[in-house]
Amino acid sequence: MPNGPVFRERPTAILAPEGWPFIAPLAAATAIAAFVHGGIALALGALTLFVVAFFRNPARAVPGDERTVVAPADGRVLCVDDVEDERGRKGLRIGIFLSVFDVHVNRAPLAGRVVSIERGGSRFLAAWDPRGERENVRLAMDLEIADGRRVLVTQITGLVARRIVCHARVGEWIERGARYGLIRFGSRTDVLLPPGSTALVKPGDRVRGGASRIAELEDPG
What we know:
Glucose Permease (Domain IIA), 3 helices, 14 strands, globular, about 220 residues, alpha+beta, three-stranded antiparallel β-sheet
């Protein structure tokens, strides 16, 4: 591992801390409603359980070695294609759609140094809308892996997502599979890998963040 600051994985609690501002008032409202109206209490209780499930943060065993790319998020694979991004960088893109029922904590697909973190976009189109790739609110984290190649991980909002959380900082070394942030309430996460990478998934496949192998890097040797 290169010298320099090391990212401290977070969130690590069973529930992501970002969920408590939603869970606590809903739980309180459910308790109050229980003394007033059973039907309302039942509805609020169901909503509370849904929000708790949304912010769940399971521990995962990370498979493979340093060339194994793991899924940066839970969800369904939307696309696997060779692209050129707005910076002119070419590579293998794997896009993952997260429904409101998926775990929304994001993980580093590979180990690397955080070179840059850039926010962009202004819209909240549906995650499966092709325009959302460039127009939606998003956060792109650029990683330089040990051999100098670059990997771009982009968190993209959707119709109901309104906030992207990224705990990593420029200059930090982040381990493969480490939890570094999340997107609140529906989203998409894309990975742009170096040319020559081999995809291990196809559109429609279900993946689990940090636990599913989605690609293998080309051996630089």
